[in-house]
Amino acid sequence: xxxxxxxxxxxxxxxxxxxxxxxxxxxxxxxxxxxxxxxxxxxxxxxxxxxxxxxxxxxxxxxxxxxxxxxxxxxxxxxxxxxxxxxxxxxxxxxxxxxxxxxxxxxxxxxxxxxxxxxxxxxxxxxxxxxxxxxxxxxxxxxxxxxxxxxxxxxxxxxxxxxxxxxxxxxxxxxxxxxxxxxxxxxxxxxxxxxxxxxxxxxxxxxxxxxxxxxxxxxxxxxxxxxxxxxxxxxxxxxxxxxxxxxxxxxxxxxxxxxxxxxxxxxxxxxxxxxxxxxxxxxxxxxxxxxxxxxxxxxxxxxxxxxxx
Length: 309
Hints:
Blueprint: H1 6-16, H2 20-29, H3 34-43, E1 59-66, E2 70-78, H4 81-84, H5 87-102, H6 107-112, E3 114-115, E4 118-119, H7 120-131, E5 135-144, E6 148-155, E7 162-163, E8 165-173, H8 177-194, H9 206-221, H10 227-245, H11 263-274, E9 278-287, H12 299-306
Antiparallel strand pairs: 1-2, 1-7, 2-5, 3-4, 6-8, 8-9
Helix pairs in contact: 1-2, 1-3, 2-3, 5-7, 9-10
């Protein structure tokens, strides 16, 4: 049997909001597998954890740079939020984002790009030596359209180009750039808040869809109803999943948006008002530390060790 620690139980509780005993039971049932434990809790109806499963677990900043019809994001991690507020660190991330735009969001090329007297990687190494805390350029990406704009939004902004969440939205259109940017920024703000999994149902990972279908089928079967009824229930449950998970199907969260209108319909409405087609080509969302497991120690124990006890 897997050794289920108090830390594992706490981590599962933080991710799901379920009770401590339920979390312990879920981990025991799944041999300590965190992902499987979250699924087990959902199937039991104890929690709806999907939205919380990717919570940030490391510090740092996301930098954003745009240039008309292109935009880039870069995530630079640090050990503490204290360093993320350091002006030299912030300047490094801002510059890295601009260079990422030049290097088309390719990480290897970015790290070798000149930054002052050194390349990006060596500049960061020097910053680590100066500040005394580990840092890394974790990832970068570029988004572009042939015609139109790439709009950006930064949430929890440390400055206009830096924050804990960075979003790019690509709109393809011949409409005026200022009008497109206004719409694109609203959609980017929506993406920051709603965290969609994909642009359309077709863009969803097949494994994610199959996993959700399996979970919802198990939940539906607990009703004890016949299979033909369960199949219809499943159709409704999956439709709801798409409405919650796919950008074009999500209810638009922008201030002043028409009540109940979806993001897709809002784009269609804007196209009609501007008298030219608008295509929502894609989006990218970076949140600092998502997917990184943070190692948490006992603070009192660390202090004792530092004191030599």
